[in-house]
Amino acid sequence: MVRVATLLGEWATRRGESEREKIRWMAAGYLHDALRDEDPERLRGHVPAPFDELPGKVLHGPAAADFLRKEGVDDEELLHAISYHTVGSKDFGEIGFALVAADFLEPGRKMREDWRAELRERAAGDLREVVKEILADRLGSLLERRRPLGLEAVDMWNLLSEGEPWASASEF
Ligand SMILES: [Fe+2]
Fold first, then answer.
1. Cβ 24 vs Cβ 95: under 8 Å
2. Which of 17, 21, 121, 172 has the most neighbouring CB atoms within 10 Å?
3. Distance 33 CA to ligand 1 centre (A)
């Protein structure tokens, strides 16, 4: 969480965001996984519908947002980012896109390091393109493995691809 928050702070600075905005970005980094190590079935009873139907490993997002809301946090963009960081959302504000990117690109993850370092470098100036590249990779890998796609991630993909020529899936 510290690495994600630090990366978000760096990007906010490089983008010239205000100090207040930088604090919001870093808060997303520090708080998004606050309940990741809790028993998912215990969290299930605490998250509002429709989140309570989600698979266990993604429940910590909405559970953390719900907990923060009850503690008096009313920053909706921040809460939405935390809630949906595990599944994606077409309704993310900049904090949501940045959180998803930072979560995937934080330097502690040891996979495809050159590719991830390059995206990390570009993210401050070209956040949406970087998120699109991450999502294309993740969705592509699910398709290759013949796995189902989450509707939230597909909606997010369609949002990020707006303006591209549309083709039906049956147009071969
Ligand atoms: Fe998470």
1. yes
2. 17
3. 5
